[in-house]
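>> received
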Amino acid sequence: MQMTDPALTRPDLDPRAGELQPAALYGPRMRFEDYLQFLSEAPLDHVAGLLHERALAAHTGNLSFYDDTRGSYRGYVDLSGQEPVYYSLNLSPLVILPAMLAAFLHGIDVDLEKYVERPLQWLHDNRYGEIAPHVFGVLEEAPGKESQIWLKYSAEKAAIEADYAQILRQFGNKTLAEQHIERAIGNAQFVMAAADNDYSPKFDLVTGQWIPSGWHAKGRSVEALARLWKITGDRRFRDYALLFGERLITLWDARRGPFFRDEEGHLCFDSDLAGPPLRALLICYRLSVAQGLPDKARRFLRYAIRFAKWLEARQERNGAYPLRIFKERHLNLHRDSQEELRWVLSHRREPGSALHLNGVTSPGDVANITLGLIELMECTGRRTYLESIMLGTAYCLYVQNMDPTSVAYGLPPSWRHIEDMEDPWQSLDDTYSGDQGGLLERLFLLLEESMSDRPELYR
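>> returned
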């Protein structure tokens, strides 16, 4: 059901008379607190209609990054100058493509050959790294790291290839489906090879060595392997998914929390590594239930609930989550100003950049965490998580650029100061990215579906 979004209407005009003005003239007019109250009190079918309209806007924004000549998605668009400047093609398809597939499954018209098949081929042609026959992954693109195959990216690609193959099977294209299943298996073989090498997050093709530090993407690995188990029926994928789930818990216990990043030599929570681990624990819970292992299942669910509580305790009043929280508490004491963060973002270089990003939030990560909380609420039937879900959703809606004249229409800012709610469509470094938009699109579609399927959880 379509409805008027009060955050985008002029208070001095009567919406009943049809006198609404483009949000481009003024930006959001309703205070965030009032907008949150509106979402909490509006009829569910009204909110679901709003979410669908916003998903369509995010979809439009994601498509704007597509380079028709090269057949894939560009990284960021920079709006700091008089003309928009698009970055070159990068790994953003790993986040945009799941949104494209979700949109297709929710009835949105998507040209799969153009917007899914071609970008997957671009990734295969340009970011392919092989460590053994039929064992390959996705190469990093950052300067100085081009020889590194990352577990995080490889797991993401395995999951996308499997999901796409499932759709192709359903529509009778078995030949193309088998090609993508083969690619999914090759990426999954790399994921399992990482597990066999102490769950290392990277492999360097130049040295031939596994690298023990980095982004410990156990959650994405579980998601990918569970999809391979579903589509192939090969128990190895299920068993390795559970091994990664166990390792996730072991890492949590050893580090006393979700400090799954040590890229710069300091343990830290990274919001990019929050949503997938939460969902992974729920996947392992379901896999254990299906195997008739109640004790193991309860353990996975207990850690999922513990993780959710940890996240909720650190969620800001405006719904945002910190981009970084360091294990060493003194590194968290200083929260940078907007001016300091703008300078850091425009000059930052890995490694070490994480040490200078206190006070930043990533709207896409807020969406990803909220996706995990929705799944947890559906799994447990507990409305305990509803407040955090609606807070996170309200934040994502509030910062989504709905200026129809803007190049960044439908997209959230790449970076926001975590406390600031003024000028919410403005990015700290004037950039907007499709991977952020992809996560918003998935959130809005899933929440719309959840409200329809499980209305008792929302009222």
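>> The first helix runs from residue 32 to 41.
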